[in-house]
Amino acid sequence: MHVLAIMGSPRTGRATEQLLDQALAGVCEAAPQAQVKKIRLGESHIGPCRNCLACRDNLEAVPYAPCVQHDDMTPLLDDLARCDALIFATPVHMGHATSLAMAFLERICWTFAKPTGRVLAVRGCPVPRTAKQRTAAVIVVSGVVPPLLRRFCDEATPLVRRTLKDSLNCRTVGSLYAGAVERRGADMYAAAARRLGKAVVS
């Protein structure tokens, strides 16, 4: 089993990465044979989508359509195609995923999906290019807003879930909102992060 961990914070070693590492510890406990790879988006050069639509219009490519940009996203496409499970962690900035995380999500949309889906009367919605099924977990961290007020702060979790489902055929097995970590600390959520890691490989 291949597990890919995406760290969407520009800061290393802080709450988001600490909780992602706890989730990966849960993965290793539940599936010692799993091959794990962690990607720090803050250490990668991944440009924003140029909206050229070359990948979207390539309907035949499997498991993904190549992107015209050649940056650090290029080798990640093979990692994403190979993975069986994915853990995505990001802080919330202004209630949304970080700009690093958003660039990554934009770049996987039409590379791993094609516009052949339909929702009600709307045609051209993304559907995965392959039938490979994956599991996913989402970790979202807020420095100030506590879990009780999550609905006012967390636009990131539903966006990540939808994008991973539409592009990579991921079934999200759970999410963790670690709120008010500046006051509470990340350790308060460590056990929940470990359980999430175990769930993604169960």
Low-pLDDT windows of residues: none
What's the CATH H-level homologous superfamily?
Flavodoxin domain
Characterize the biggest β-sheet: 6 strands, mixed
**Count of helical regions:** 6
Q: Average pLDDT value?
A: 96
Q: Domains counted in the coordinates: how many?
A: 1
CATH topology: Rossmann fold
Helices and strands, in N-to-C order? Answer: EHEHEEHEEEHEHH
Pfam families: FMN_red
Domain NADPH-dependent FMN reductase-like: 1-109
InterPro entries: Flavoprotein-like_sf, FMN_Rdtase-like_dom, ISF_SsuE-like
Keywords: Flavoprotein, FMN
Folded structure, characterized:
Helix content is 34%, strand content 27%. The protein has 202 residues and is of the alpha/beta class. The protein has one domain (2-201): Rossmann fold, CATH 3.40.50.360. Strands 1, 2, 3, 4, 7 and 8 form a six-stranded mixed β-sheet that branches. The chain has a two-stranded antiparallel ribbon with strand order 5-6. Helix 1 (15-30) packs across helix 6 and helix 3 (99-112) packs parallel to helix 4 (156-168). The longest helix has 16 residues, at 15-30. The relative contact order is 0.21.
